[in-house]
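REVIEWER CHECKLIST
Item 1: Sequence provided? yes
Item 2: Single chain? yes
Item 3: Sequence as submitted:
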Amino acid sequence: MASEKLRAATESIEGEELQMDMSSMIDLVFLLLIFFMVSSHLIIVQIDKRVKPPTAKNAQVAKNATGRVVVNVLDDGTIWAQDEVELGSTDAITEYVQAARERHDESGLPTRLNLRADKGVDTRVIKKVVQAAGDAGVSDVIFGSYVVEKN
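Item 4: Structure as written out by the authors:
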């Protein structure tokens, strides 16, 4: 009986052109798109507009921004964390970097100091920040600069 129904169904559509229903395929593509958008890590490094970093010919745009602890040094020598908290002393810098390093250690990320200093800052202030980060256990330092067009 089932074979008679199958034979009748195939005979009735022999003259018709077969079409594929693409709606389920489109739904699947949109579901995959949404899944990858939600599961991907969007890493945003907040840039303090008060800092005017120096330019460099050999500067490169970073491909990986994970595990960074951003510290901004303004032209007047004040030191600010990424989340707009002023770090007034060496101990405050060490505590801030150490707390970030401990968070990164829990997630298995290597911690790097991203130092964004204004081009007019005294190098003694930069040295102070780097030493405080070293005291916190972070020795990998990235110096922020603008990329200059190569001629």
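Item 5: Key structural point noted by reviewer: The mean pLDDT is 82.
Item 6: Recommendation: ____
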